[in-house]
Design brief:
The protein folds into two domains: 198 residues, Glycosidases (TIM Barrel), CATH 3.20.20; 60 residues, Oligo-1,6-glucosidase, domain 2, CATH 3.90.400.10. Strands 1-2-5-9-10-11-12 form a seven-stranded mixed sheet. It has a three-stranded antiparallel sheet with strand order 6-8-7, with no helix packed on it. It is an alpha/beta fold and 306 residues long. The protein has nine helices and twelve strands.
Length: 306
């Protein structure tokens, strides 16, 4: 559809770009799923070129910031939330250079960019997980994830009774090089999304580096996916029967933006007027509202249910 036609269909308001550390408090934030938003090269798949072509229209709507759902390299087992490489744009959408150009062009129009970060898990095609499978039980590579022997005489039962956020089981059994059944690995979502072990320093350091990578390219904020799930009780306790009847499981310890942004008391965003919002699941309706952060200071929702 022609951009001029779209622009004329919606009366424009004067864009006043929110300034300062709290810009996100009053900002109009527009979510963009690149794959279906706009096709710039005519191949039938949305891409960054398509988004760039719509920036004037988005400005005319009074948009202050664009929140991009994961645009990184991914097998797309879960719409991009199975990230294979945080530092590479999925080739179906474009290139890193195009992303940098989009961020800069949007900012010239007074539109900030927010990216999606998925700390709970990565793709099973990520280099780390492929290394873990190859390294085998007891290896350092597996310590970045939740590999565990099964229960029962032959290890054929899942390590816990945890309930998946999606349909299906929360554990998948691996196969040893000799073809025999191996350890199980945890995935609160699909089997293609192995959960990361946030007790491991490599995991924390990697996410700090990823945040720094994107802030260095002009990103103004981040949205944290499934922010209540990354930190697990290392004893892997079973859920009580009452919890198993709920549609959303509570398998992780309470957490908020602090876990993902201010790691170990340090924050990659501490010198920037950056914003963070987080998705929380496994909570009461009242406490599941978004936590919001300004730099390293977070205001998580109440978990008291009051």
């Amino acid at each position: 559809m022609d951009t001029d036609v779209l622009r004329s269909a919606a009366p424009a308001r004067a864009l006043t770009m929110p300034a300062g550390e709290g810009w996100w408090r009053t900002a109009v934030i527009y979510q963009v799923y690149v794959r279906s938003f706009a096709d710039g090269n005519g191949d039938g798949t949305g891409d960054l070129a398509g988004v760039r072509s719509r920036l004037p229209y988005l400005k005319s709507l009074g948009v202050d910031a664009l929140w991009f759902t994961p645009w990184y390299r991914s097998p797309l087992a879960d719409g991009g939330y199975d990230v294979q490489d945080y530092r590479t744009i999925d080739p179906r959408f474009g290139t890193l250079a195009e992303a940098e150009q989009l961020i800069a062009e949007a900012l010239e129009l007074g539109i900030r960019t927010i990216v999606d970060i998925v700390p709970n898990h990565i793709s099973d095609q990520h280099e780390w997980f492929r290394q873990a499978l190859s390294a085998g039980p007891g290896s350092a590579e597996r310590e970045r994830f939740w590999f565990h022997p099964g229960r029962g005489a032959d290890g054929g039962e899942m390590p816990t009774n945890w309930v998946s956020s999606f349909q299906g089981e929360t554990w998948t059994r691996t196969q040893n090089p000799d073809g025999t059944p191996g350890e199980w690995y945890l995935h609160l979502f699909t089997p293609q999304q192995p959960d990361l072990n946030w007790n491991h320093p490599d995991v924390r350091r990697e996410h700090e580096d990823v945040l720094r990578f994107w802030f260095d390219r002009g990103v103004a904020g981040v949205r944290i996916d499934s922010a209540a799930l990354p930190v697990k009780d290392p004893s892997l306790p079973d859920l009580p029967p009452a919890s198993l009847r709920r549609t959303t499981t509570r398998t992780s310890t309470a957490t908020n933006c602090t876990t993902s942004i201010a790691i170990g008391g340090r924050s990659p965003t501490s010198t920037r007027a950056s914003a963070c919002s987080s998705e929380r699941s496994g909570s009461t309706t009242r406490s599941a509202s978004r936590a919001t952060c300004d730099r390293a200071r977070c205001t998580p929702p109440s978990t008291s249910g009051s």
